[in-house]
């Protein structure tokens, strides 16, 4: 597939419009969190703190590794090193899958520890916000996986592959940035 200037511009315009609406969603979630935190007497269940902090720190490092590998994939593709590009993108996908798995395990561990939706307002918020974030991250991961699975297109049309990687990479980086800012606020507010 060859790209025209209008196709590239419309793809980027569509991405920035999407990111604008995503920002409104996440700012709304943050506003609700601030309201809950400041205007209600909400305490996290004590077990929530001990369950999440070490896992959250490790999970954030895994996400940062995924971002670094994605950056290396972009550099390799830009330089025409297809094998290195596919390797780095594959490593980014593996780190992203590990991140998503650990985030899902974190939610499950809270649920099994008795921290369930419907018991406290803050846990209802926690599950809703985490679910929304994880859904978006799964979509971002799927976009990158689609990019990796198109190996033949990448080898024959590097311009299209680079454009697709840039679009999906910006979305993945945006979501990771939101997660790395948003989620620690929730976690750190639990500490006594």
Description of the structure:
With 192 residues, this protein is mainly alpha-helical. The protein has a single domain, classed as Four Helix Bundle (Hemerythrin (Met), subunit A), CATH 1.20.120.80. Helix content is 86%, strand content 0%. The protein has 6 helices and no strands. Helix 3 packs antiparallel against helix 4 (121-149).
Pick out its properties.
single chain; 0% strand; mainly alpha; Four Helix Bundle (Hemerythrin (Met), subunit A); 192 residues
Number of helices: 6
- CATH homology superfamily: Cytochrome c oxidase, subunit III, four-helix bundle
The parts where pLDDT drops under 50 for at least 5 residues are none
Q: Give the oligomeric state of the chains in this entry, treating copies of one chain as homo and distinct chains as hetero.
A: single chain
| Percent of sequence in beta strands | under 5%
CATH class: Mainly Alpha
SSE order: HHHHHH
Largest sheet: none
Radius of gyration: 19 Å
In the CATH hierarchy, the third-tier topology is known as Four Helix Bundle (Hemerythrin (Met), subunit A)
- Mean of all residue-level pLDDT scores: 83
Q: Structural class, from helix and strand content?
A: mainly alpha
* Outline type: elongated
């Amino acid at each position: 597939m060859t790209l025209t200037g209008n196709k590239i511009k419309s793809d980027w315009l569509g991405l920035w419009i999407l990111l604008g609406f995503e920002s409104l969603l996440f700012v709304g979630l943050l506003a609700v969190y601030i309201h809950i935190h400041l205007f209600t007497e909400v305490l996290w269940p004590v077990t929530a703190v001990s369950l999440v902090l070490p896992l959250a720190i490790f999970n954030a490092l895994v996400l940062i590794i995924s971002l670094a590998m994605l950056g290396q994939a972009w550099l390799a593709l830009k330089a025409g090193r297809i094998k290195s590009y596919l390797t780095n993108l594959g490593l980014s996908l593996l780190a992203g899958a590990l991140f998503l798995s650990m985030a899902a395990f974190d939610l499950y561990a809270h649920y099994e520890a008795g921290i369930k939706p419907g018991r406290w307002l803050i846990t209802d918020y926690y599950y809703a916000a985490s679910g929304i974030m994880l859904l978006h991250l799964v979509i971002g991961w799927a976009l990158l996986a689609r990019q990796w699975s198109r190996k033949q297109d990448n080898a024959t049309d590097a311009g299209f592959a680079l454009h697709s990687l840039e679009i999906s990479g910006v979305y993945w980086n945006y979501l990771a940035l939101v997660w790395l800012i948003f989620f620690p606020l929730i976690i750190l507010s639990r500490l006594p």
